[in-house]
Description:
Radius of gyration: 18 Å
Oligomer: single chain
Low-confidence stretches: 1-21, 120-127, 216-222, 226-232
Largest sheet: 6 strands, antiparallel
Structural class: mainly beta
Distance between the termini: 18 Å
Shape: globular
Number of strands: 11
CATH topology: Immunoglobulin-like
Helix content: 10-25%
CATH class: Mainly Beta
Amino acid sequence: MKHCLLLLAVVAALVVGAPAFAQSVWLDTNGDGLNSLMTPFLPDGVTPTPDDNLTPGTMNVDIWFDTDSNGDGSAATCDTGSEPLSMNSFGVSLAATGTGSVTFNTWDNNIASFTNNLSGTVGVGSGGDPGLAAASNEAYIGNGSGTYSSPGLYKIGTVNVTVIGNEVLNVMTSVSVGLGSYTGFGTECFGLDFLNTYTLGVDFFDVFGTEPTTDVTKNTTWGKIKDLYNGQ
């Protein structure tokens, strides 16, 4: 009976409590191209292992964008017209929370055609990287080009961080560092703000940051949902 009630709670949470899984951004700390918080939306048998955590020390965090796919594999389309969900720029706002600290060291852009960067941004990062603006536990990353890349799945790059203590890295709509920080991508689609930009919190809502390194989430609703899908 308890399992039945939990299953009903899972279904209700997925149907009512979550937005449609559309364009998305996620962080990957183990190099498998996925995020462990995405498990309920992945095909059967596909489970990111291990969980995507921050661990003390220096590590790389890959950032992924999917511009034109829904979580069920169906195609996502422009919300204001018939233009393609191409990409000619991106911005990512990151913020760490927890009992320690995160220092953002360098940014390695993975899209060769995106050569413009944040060289004009106040507070360019601690590593002097022109694509990275960082201060305290926040960072803004951005690159762009005058040329559109085709709609699809992109590993946009890798940020190198130094982690102290138990921290979680989240994708935010904006942060306090960087000029006009946001999370989203430039596209041929006008978007709801008519800026040729698909923006987190306006045009899409699905983001997946890192998981806590402790077992505290196992006692939360989300932890139980994740364990149910993992068969634990």
